[in-house]
Here is the input.
Amino acid sequence: MSGVDWQEVERVLAIVIDLPENDRARRLDDLCGDRLRLRAEVESLLAAHRDADAFLVAHTKIACTSLQPELLTGQRLGSYRLEGVIGAGGMGTVYRAERMDGQFQKQVAIKVVPGAIHSAELQRRFSSEQQILASLEHPNIARLYDAGISPDGISYFVMEFVNGVPINQYCDSRNLGVKERLKLFQTVCESLQYAHQHLVVHRDLKPANILVGQEGVPKLLDFGVAKILDPWRGGLLEATQSLLNPMTPGYASPEQARGERLTTASDIYSLGVVLYELLTGQPAQPVSGKSLDEAIRIITETEPLKPTIAVRKTVRRSFAPTFELTPDLDAIVAKSMRKDPQERYASAQEFSADLSRYLDGMPVLAHRGTVRYRGTKFAKRHRLSVVLAAAALAVLLGFAATMAVQARRIAKERDRANREAEVSRRVAEFMINMFKVADPNEARGNRLTAREILDKASGEIGPGLANDVELQARMMDVMGTVYWNLGLYSRARELLERSVSLRTHTLGLESPATLASREHLAVVLVSQGHIVDAQKLERETLELRRRVLGPEHPDTLQSMKTVARLIEREGRDMPNGPEADARFQEAEKLERETLEIARRVLGPEDVSTLGLMNNLGSTLDYEGRYAEAERLQRELLELQRRVLGPEHRDTMGSMNNIAFTLEKEARYAEAESLYREALQVQRRVLGPDHPDSLLTMDNLNNTIAEQGRYAEAEKLCRETLDIRRRILGPEHRDTATSKYELAGLLARQGRHDEALAELRDAVDHGLPAGTALDIDKEDDFKSLHGDPRYRALLAHARERAATLK
Here is the structure.
C-alpha cells in the first residue's frame, strides 16, 4: 500500500463499511474525490471483507437471537442468580442478580454477551469493557465486581447495581431548577474527568448512561464502546481503531459521526449535548428518524438553537417556567459543542469550572464578551459598591482600577485555559503517535508487546516533547508510576527522578505537581529497599504540603500515611527491643491521627481512609496486639468487599494481612486457607510475577513450614526466589529475604551445608540489617548453633549489619 495514507484508508473504510451497497458509491465519491488510489484500496478491502463479514453477521445474529434475554432469567452464572432483565442492546443484555453462595448478600447487575463466543469483535469489546471498568474506581462510576465465563461459554461480568433513572428524567420528575441541575451535572463532570485522567474515553455519553438514584447521586455507566487511550494498558494493541463505529447519533460529536479518531474532546461534546437537554428539555440535534447521511450532515454542519431560544420555543410549556436561562449558559453550552474539537473546553474539569463561575456570578470563559460584559457581571455581584462609586470621582477611579485588575485576572484565566487546551492536545498527539508502532508500516510485520510500546513511549518523551519541559515532566511522572505498578522499579526511579528535577526547576519546590512527583519517587525508593532515603524525602514533602496545602488536605494526609508506613518499616528492620517498639508506637500515633482526619474530611469509605485502616492494622500486628489487629482488619475487609469489590488488589491485601495475624497466633490452618484464596485471585488478576502475588507466596510458604510440611514449603520458597531474582535482581532485599527463608527450611531438614550457603548469600546480598542481627533468635537455625561455621557467619552478619546501618 505504498503511497497511500493507511490512517485515511482506515477512516474512510470505517465510515462506509456499514452503509447499504447503493449508498456506498456516492459516499466514496464524497470522501475520496479524485484520489483514485485511496478509493481503490478502500474498495479492495470492502470486497475482501464482504464474505467474511456476512459470515460473522449471520453467526452473531444466530448466537444472539437463539438465546432470548428472558430465557436466562432464573438461571445461575457463577455465584449469582439472574432475577430479571434490566436492559438489552447491541452490546449485550444486563440482568439484575443476587449473590447465592452465602458469603454475603448483595444485589448486582450482570452483563452478558452470548454472541461473543461467535464474534471476535464482540469478544474484544466485551473484554475491553471489563478492563476499563476494572481500572476505574470512582464513587460516581459503576464499579466492576467480578467476571467469568459460564460452562456454556457465555461471557459475563458483575457490576454495581445502580437503582436509578436517567439524569434528565430525574431532574424533570423533581422539577429541579437551573442551579440544582448544574450542580448535579458538575458531579458527572468530575467522574468523566477521572475517566479521562485514566486515559479512557467513554464515547457514548447520554442521559440513559447517567443514572441518578433516589438519594440524588449520579452514576456513570456502560463503557461498552469506550476506548483506552493508553497503548500499554492490558496489551490492547488492537484498540488503535476498530472497523465498527458504534455511537448514539443524537449525542455523537462531529468527528465521531465522520468516523475519525476520538479523543477526550469528543466526550466534552457529548457532555454538552446532555447539558443542553437538561436545560431545554429537548435534543440539541434533531436526528431521530433521519437517514445516515442527513444525520451526519446535521451533526457536522448545523448549529443547534441557543438554549434560551429553544426553551421559549419548546412545546412542553410546563417545562419552560422552571428555568431562567441566560446568555452565559448559551455561551457555555456553545463552547462545549463547537464543531472544532480544539475550540471546546480542554477538559471536563474546565467545563465544570466555567459552570461554577456562572453559579458564583463571575464572568465565564466561554463568553466572547467585552469589558462591558465583565463590568456588568461585576456590578451585579457588587451593587452597593457601584452605587457608592457613582457618588464621587475618586471612588469611580477606584472602581476603574478594580475593573483593570479584574480584566487582568480574566486574561490570566483565559491564558491558563488556552494552556490547558494546548497541553491536552499535545498529550493526545503524543499518545496517538505511540499507537503508530502497531501500524504495519511501522512494525514491519513484528508483533509488539505492551511493554515494548511502553519502553518506546518513555524513550520518546525527551525528543517528542522537547519544546515543553513542563509536559515532559508530567509524562515522566505518569510513566514512572506505570513502571512502578508493573514492578519495574529501576526504570520507574529513573523517570521519577527526572520528573522531580524538571518540576522543581520549572514549577518550584512548593508546587503541588512537584510534591506529587516527590511522593511517587519516595514510594519507588521504598520498593527498592532504600528506606532511609525514602523517609528523608517523604518527611520533607510532608512539611512542604502542610505549609503549602494545609494540614487536612488529601495530599498532606497521603504524606502522613507514607511517613507512618516508613517509620513502621524502620522498626521492622531493627532487632526486637525497645528501639523497634518505639518506632511502632510512633507509627501508630501518626496513623491514628491521620485516620481520624481522613474519616472526617474524606469519609469512612474513601479509598484513602481504607488504606489508613490497613496500615494501622499492620502496625498493631507488629506490636503484638493480635486480637485488636484482627478486629480492625476484618472490619476493613468487609468495607473493601462492599466498596472496592471482592477481587480488588487492596481487598486481597487485607486477606493477606488477616492471615498473617492468624499465623502469629499459631492458627496455621486458617491462615493457609486465606493465603491460598488470596493467591488464587492475585495470580489471575495481577499475574504470578506481581509483587503482591510474591508476598502472598512468601507468607504461604512460612505457614506451610510451620505445619511441618518442609518439602512443600521448600518448593514454593524456591519458586518465589526464582521469580524475585528474575524480576527484582539478586541484590534486592526481597530476594535476600527469600534466600534467608530457604536457608531456614534447609536447616530444619538437616541440610546444613546448603543452609549455610544460602544464609551467607542472603547476608552478603541485600538482607535487611534488623533481620541479620536477629538470625540467632530464629528457631529455624537452632540445629546450626553448635556449628563453628554458623558462629563465624553470625559475626560476619553483625559486621555487615553495622555497615548497612
User: Anything to note?
Assistant: The chain has 34 helices and eleven strands.
